[in-house]
Amino acid sequence: MTEPSTADLSAFELAAKISRREIKAVDAAHAYLNRVKSQDAKIHAFNEIYAEDLLAAAEMVDRSLDAGEKSGPLAGVPIALKDNLCTLKGHTTCSSKMLQNFQSPYDATVVTRLKAAGALVVGKTNLDEFAMGSSTENSAFGPTRNPWNPNCVPGGSSGGSAAAVAARMCAAALGSDTGGSIRQPAALCGIVGLKPTYGLVSRYGLVAFASSLDQIGPMTRDVRDAALFLNVIAGPDAKDSTSWPQTPPDYLRDIDRPPEKLRIGLPKEFFGEGLSPEVSKAIHKAVDFFRGHGAEIVEVSLPHTRYGIAAYYVIAPAEASSNLARYDGVHYGHRTAHAEDLIDLYAASRAEGFGPEVQRRIMLGTYALSSGYYDAYYLRAQKVRQLIKADFDHAFKACDVILSPTTPDVAFELGAKSGDPLAMYLCDVFTVTCNIAGIPGMSLPCGFSPSGLPIGMQLLGPLFSETVLLRLARFYETAHDWHRRKPGDDV
Amino acid sequence: MTEPEYKVLIGMEIHVQLATASKMFTGAASGYSEEPNTQVDGVVLGLPGVLPVINRRAVEMAMMVGVALGCQIASQTKWDRKSYYYPDLPKNYQISQYDQPLCGVGSVELDMPDGSSKTIRIRRAHLEEDAGKLLHEAGQPVSLVDLNRAGTPLLEIVTEPDLNSPEEARLFGEQLRQICRYLGVSQGIMQQGHMRFEPNINLHISADGRVYKTAISEIKNLNSFRSVERACQYEIQRQLAEFMTDRQSAMQAGKSTRGWDDDKGCTTLQRSKEEAHDYRYFPDPDLVPLHVDTHWVERVRLQVPELPAARKQRYLQMGLAMKEAAALLEDRAVSDLFDAAVKIRPLPKRIANLMLGPAAKIANARAGDLAATVRISDLEVTADQYAKLAGMMEDGTVSASAASTVFESLCGGEEKDPQVIAERLGLVQIRDTGATQAWVDAAIAHNPQAVSDFKNNPKKKQASLGFLRGAVMKLSQGKADPKLVGELLEKTLEKDS
Predict the structure, then answer these.
(1) Is B126 in the same domain as B158?
(2) Dist CA B12 CA B221 (whole Å)
(3) Whole-angstrom Cα distance, residue A236 to residue A216?
(4) Same domain for B150 and B280?
(5) Which positions of A are annotated as active-site residues?
């Protein structure tokens, strides 16, 4: 076996080699910039690339390490950030015309923590506008393509981050997940994606879509990297009132110790109609693997799953309609060139600045919160939310971890669903309930379709069970090599 | 047509800006600033990605007001978004409290000018953030936005419609301001918008043997007590006139919002019921519900000082006149100083006389010189000094007029001991019977007419006694003890007759 090239190393391996001075940070930076140069013209994972800053920062890391100074756990590791995370550097656009020229005067808490850990930013990645979508086609700057097949979507909304990691244009990336936006693109691009427990990672500096559902999480080559990045970004933040006040554990410490005597639950509602045979086959093979290694496999029921999408498409747009009200052309962001009066300024700026999916969700949410409809929609959706939480509480009495497909099918072709919002919304059918309940969920590669597209397995656990999820996923990963496969370059 | 009998019902909504160091949901400085857009940060500006964090001090100040108004303090309170688009509201929603206000029902006694009081029920009081300001310059095609005020903590207090006249509405506003000042939650400077009033008014008119209720109108954003009273007066007359001309429409119009034009002295329609906003309230997902445990409420309760109403009762019981009590209570620092002095020497009447006499005179004179407010408590005289000087008056060491002179010297003088000052200025009263008797004898010898009047003319008896007493004081150069002088004078005159 030949020594893997620098860009093929996991973030964990790369960080170790850089800190041992086996690889120079500057060389790693060049390796990734070369990947970007050769790949991103067709993939379009990035909205913005900071080549000069990356190299300058890499040189500083090298100088500091050469001088024997103490370094962070990610010293010299080139990463990408979803373009809805605020950064002092460059623009923070949310892939929207509304914020095309917006420059944030501050770094998000996760960005500050990554920088402090020594990570270097390659650039900001494409997304569905304001994270609303499941294919990264709803970007004002054009779609991102799936590195495994550029005719296919990478999933979304963190499609740019997923594609950048899969195509080796960065060692790892951060995404955000409101209804599956980390896990679904991770599954479709054959990488690992973790949506932490709500409150584990500070949302300060994440441009809000649906505040009660949004979480930032790592998108990585393998499970150990997910643990490494979670170690850096998780933990209390006084700037986020919803952040969990306790110090999280070290997720790397026992990452290679297999969990003992685990009961794995298979929710029967996730294995019914609509699940593609190839995905089903891959998932059952994974189940067999766990059974073969002593896990107890139990069937569980999450009876309110069928209401998950409906509840999600009331709660998320309702919060979005309020969160996005600030983009009005008055203080910052896109302002129309032609306005007769104040109302006209608002209406025209927003009509010009927001794409159709964002407008659709703002209208849905405004309607759901309107006087006379609030009880029928928002309040009822909140009740469903309680029922979905209760479903999980009940299921986690019978099992420790829930295993399911991440998506009903593998990546679809560009344009296949863009004319049918409902079909697009159903991409998230297995992922939304996790956000609604606030529990952690992750997706990891578990096979490929006959056409060569990746398949993802989803693991869900009770609140703050990341340690268990990561160790179980790592156990699976070390016995398989799905995560080592990489897309061909000349597709 | 004669004017019918009617009853006025006024409920007030009062916005009090809380005098916290930082804003309601962020660390940006709170308070007045000349330079526009200097009291702002990312949260105030509503930038992408920012999050609100509750200001605990604002919550405590709001609880203090709640306690003072006898409100039930909620054990759990939550935050809601109130949505409307306006350029002075950067997020286009205001964080407020919709259905779980921090302070629930309560009541407060309103002191009436005739000395009686009436109960005003409080419906609720909740916390929210203030908006910024728009500046419209005449002739300019643009408006400017100043967000200095945006995000300032506001307490909105809502009363039941228990105020029955414009005067009561004004008195309530004044007394609420006094309470807020005592609590230290607001300086209550009306010109700076520290308090804003919104009376809701309607009339119950008796005519044709039944009672007609006129439609409620809310008058927005009044920022002086005078405008509260005037706007209510105007609105009563307007509703009455409307009722007289068109009974149906006066009653069925539905609640309307009106603005007050202070120059023209009239209200104008801003918004009728049909145009009412749909604020699309929903719980703010960026904030967690706030749990207020009983220990916290108790700690806050301990921070609440004795309030003006209770102090007033105490002062009246001490024997102060209503007017004196009111004057001392106007400012908490003055009242605190009075209480401190009385605690050292329980001579309330004498201490009050010193404070409202020579002290008030000096404070007023200084205020005139500085063109600023100077309170009695701003003078350099301490509670100890008040107590000592009052004691000296009480035991006859100095006369009332000598005490005034001593007081003047205490203000700004080097010497801090009233006794030493009195001695240095030769103001200590002479209570030596021998010396006083000599002045009495001299006065009697020099004023035969007065002596004769005293003895022979009952009508002039008191006047002549006063005249002789004055003569004695003059001879003693003001040092004789008036009490002793009176005794000796009467004794000597009686003896001679």
Answers:
(1) yes
(2) 11
(3) 14
(4) yes
(5) 82, 157, 181
Say if CB B125 and CB B131 are below 8 A apart: no
* Domains (range + CATH), chain A: 7-262 (3.90.1300.10)
Subunit contact B53:A331, Cβ cutoff 8 A: no
| Cα B48 from Cα A331, distance rounded (Å) | 11
Residue B43: pLDDT over 80: yes
The tens digit of pLDDT for each residue in B171-185 reads 999 999 999 999 999
Other C-beta atoms closer than 10 Å to the C-beta of B274 total 7
- Give the count of domains, chain B: 3
Return the closest-CA partner of residue A442 out of A478, A404, A487: A404
Query: Would you call B51 and A366 a contact, using CB atoms and an 8 Å cutoff?
Result: no
Please tell me the distance from the alpha carbon of residue B313 to that of residue A256, in angstroms, as a whole number. 75
Report which of B50, B15, B404 is spatially closest to residue A323, judged by C-alpha positions. B50
C-alpha to C-alpha distance for B123 and B145, rounded to whole angstroms: 34
> Are B160 and B125 a contacting pair, CB within 8 Å?
no
Residue spans of beta strands (DSSP E) within B208-344: 210-213, 217-219, 256-261, 266-271, 282-283, 290-291
Distance CA(A114)–CA(A72), nearest Å, equals 9
CA distance B260 to B279: 24
Of B391, B424, B457, the last residue of a domain is B424
CA B249 and chain centroid, separation = 40
Give the list of residues 6+ apart from residue B164 with CB closer than 8 angstroms, or none.
Answer: B7, B8, B9, B10
Contacts of B297 (CB under 8 A, 6+ apart): B63, B67, B73
Residues of B in contact with A102 (CB under 8 A): 48
In a domain, B296, yes or no: no
The list of chain A residues with pLDDT below 70 reads 1-3, 489-491
Pair A372, B279: CB distance under 8 Å: no
- Name every chain A residue with its beta carbon within 8 A of the beta carbon of B282: 318, 322, 369, 374, 378
φ/ψ region of A68 (left if φ > 0, alpha if ψ in -120 to 50, else beta) reads left
HSE, side-chain direction, 13 A CA sphere, residue A248: 28
What residues of chain B have any CB closer than 8 angstroms to a CB in chain A? 42, 45-54, 81, 83, 85, 87, 90-93, 145, 278, 280-282, 285-288
Residues B274 and B167 grouped into a single domain: yes
B287 touches B95 (CB < 8 A): yes
Q: How do residues B417-469 score in pLDDT, each as one tens digit?
A: 999 999 888 888 887 888 888 999 999 999 988 888 888 888 888 888 889 98
Average pLDDT score, chain B: 92
What single-letter DSSP state applies at residue B430?
B
ipTM: 0.96
Task: Give CA separation, A407 vs A274, A443, B38, B342, B423, in Å.
Answer: 10, 10, 50, 80, 98
- Among B424, B454, B481, which residue terminates a domain? B424
- Contact of A194 with A440, CB cutoff 8 Å: yes
Q: How far A360 CA lies from chain B's nearest CA (Å)?
A: 18
Q: In this structure, is the dihedral angle defined by the CA atoms of residues B122, B124, B126 and B130, taken in order, positive or negative?
A: negative
Residue B444 is encoded by which pair of tokens? 């009697």
- The whole domain housing B356 covers 306-424
Query: Exposure string (b/e) for A366-403, b if CB count within 10 Å is 16 or more?
Result: bbbbeeeebeebbebbbebbeebbebbeebbeebbbbb
A248-272: b (≥16 Cβ within 10 Å) or e? beebbebbeebbeebebbbbebbee
Are residues B444 and B419 part of one domain?
no
Distance CA A38, CA A148 (A): 15
Distance CA B212, CA B249 (A): 12
- Both B173 and B39 in one domain: the answer is yes
Contact B87 A330 (CB under 8 A): yes
| Calpha distance B12→B162 (Å, rounded) | 9
Backbone angles phi, psi at A81, to 5 degrees: -125, 135
